[in-house]
């Protein structure tokens, strides 16, 4: 995947390609996402999907003071439960930075991506990030049918470190679903 912005250096391009690869690794570990899947209520596998746009859309979460970006593949038929990858951005970034790399990877894999915004510019694990991640999982599953057996969490840079910290404190029972790069 080529970076289209001439201001981006080779290092940034490599990091963004790595993030896309990370998404696919997380999807491959899909059955191991029990901790994040636990936040998805059992009855949420078949929500009303009418009106859910394909591609990227911003979803505000008033209760957490944050938002997430939801990617729904264009090939989705509107009813089939899809795998979900919750993707945590790096420090000083936001979910939008990863659109050009994660979107095509998610499209190819046929998965939903929910990329929340951390509570701090310094990264993850410093505020109510565990609540943001849980609310992201639940809200995404209320918008698009999610296969609870195929839920993963991934993070790039500080997002990878953050998911390790958050999982150690909040989701200690499930470590193999981590995909940190």
What's the topology here?
Layout: H1 10-28, H2 34-37, E1 55-61, E2 66-72, E3 82-88, H3 99-109, E4 112-116, H4 129-143, E5 146-155, H5 158-170
What's a quick, concise take on this entry?
The chain has 181 residues and is α/β, with parallel strands linked by helices. It has one domain: 3-Layer(aba) Sandwich (Rossmann fold).
Q: Can you walk through the features of this model?
A:
- This protein is an alpha/beta fold.
- It has one domain: Alpha/Beta hydrolase fold, catalytic domain (Rossmann fold), CATH 3.40.50.
- Helix content is 34%, strand content 20%.
- The protein has a five-stranded mixed beta sheet, sandwiched between helices.
- Strand 3, helix 3 and strand 4 form a beta-alpha-beta unit.
- Helix 1 packs parallel to helix 3.
- It is globular, with a radius of gyration of 15 Å.
- The protein starts with 9 loop residues before the first helix and ends in an 11-residue tail after the last helix.
- 47% of the residues are buried.
Which radius of gyration do the C-alpha atoms yield? 15 Å
CATH superfamily placement: Alpha/Beta hydrolase fold, catalytic domain
Derived from helix and strand composition plus strand pairing, the structural class reads: alpha/beta
CATH topology call: Rossmann fold
What top-tier CATH class fits best? Alpha Beta
How are the strands ordered across the major sheet?
A: 1-2-4-3-5
Low-confidence stretches: 28-48, 171-181
- In total, the number of strands is 5
Helix content: 25-40%
* Span between termini: 18 Å
Mean pLDDT equals 76
Give the DSSP E fraction (strand runs of 2 or more residues): 15-25%
Oligomer category: single chain
Form type: globular
Topology pattern, helix = H, strand = E: HHEEEHEHEH
Number of domains: 1
């Amino acid at each position: 995947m080529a970076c289209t912005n001439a201001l981006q250096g080779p290092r940034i391009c490599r990091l963004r390609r790595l993030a896309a690869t990370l998404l696919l690794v997380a999807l491959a570990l899909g059955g191991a996402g029990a901790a994040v899947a636990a936040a998805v209520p059992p009855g949420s596998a078949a929500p009303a999907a009418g009106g859910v746009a394909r591609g990227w859309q911003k979803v505000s979460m008033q209760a957490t003071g944050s938002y997430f970006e939801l990617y729904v593949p264009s090939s989705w038929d509107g009813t089939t439960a899809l795998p979900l990858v919750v993707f945590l951005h790096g420090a000083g970034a936001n979910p939008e930075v990863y659109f050009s790399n994660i979107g095509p990877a998610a499209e190819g894999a046929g998965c939903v991506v929910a990329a929340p915004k951390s509570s701090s510019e310094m990264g993850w694990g410093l505020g109510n990030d565990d609540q943001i991640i849980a609310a992201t999982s639940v809200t995404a599953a209320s918008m698009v049918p999610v296969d609870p057996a195929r839920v993963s969490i991934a993070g790039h840079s500080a997002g990878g470190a953050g998911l390790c910290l958050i999982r150690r404190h909040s989701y200690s029972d499930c470590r193999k679903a981590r995909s940190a790069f």
